[in-house]
Amino acid sequence: MSNFRRLLGYLRPYRFRVGVAVLLMVLVTLTALPMPRLTQYVLDHALPQRDRHALVLVFWAIIGIYALRGIISFSLNYIIGWLGQRVVFDLRYQSYRHINRLSLSYYDKRQTGKIMARVVDDINVIQYMITGGFVTLITDILTLLIVIPVIFWMDWRLAAIAVAVVPVYVVTYKLFLRRIRELSEQLRTMWDALIGALQEKIAGITVVKAFVREDYETDRFMKTVADNFRLGMQQAKVNRTLGVAASTIRAVGTGLIYWAGTKYVWGRTLTPGELIAFTAYIGYL
Fold this sequence. Notes:
The chain is mainly alpha-helical. The chain contains ten helices and no strands. It starts with a helix and ends with a helix.
């Protein structure tokens, strides 16, 4: 959370554009709401009554919604891209100005490659956080705030089932989060070491060749690459395991909703279209 607050600090000079981006995210979320309702209308009204006029209206409504959503999404992606590039510009300027002011002892204790990795790669990660992670976080929060009241308004019984699954997912995520973070930090450290060693060996290539140490340096470098590969595969394994667990929890929740919803449809307290629309809204969460 502290890193997220620091990220918001870099965005503070561009608060107006951030506000516009958040507004566009709200609009993108809102444009997704009519689609399940249109599906419900088709299933419960247009098809049973063979209403061709209603189907034509739904057809043009879908086209209009997607056209509007496309325009809003384009504007949002442009603004987010601008913010990401601008923050990267500011960070690179501040980083370069800062490293020029550091003492010589700082450079004596660190490899040039590691410094370059920090200045270049870490800033690229921050850019990804803005253009990817930041947008995903805000969009997910807005979706929860908008969709949860909608599903409770549609059917509080099914909504209670959907919300009851959320704590299980949160606990599962927390169990995996620490291990994922540890592996990410180890990968970051190993990547810095790899770049530092590579820069050092390339800078001293004449010495390596003079002492015929090419094979030795290659073996050392490949050992670092192999360690990086091993950690990367461990991280991928943990991530995929978390994905499988989350999918299983989601499947159980969806299955319970269909099971209970089918009973309500049989009892005529819920229509088939309402059940399909409800599950579509759950898919947004």
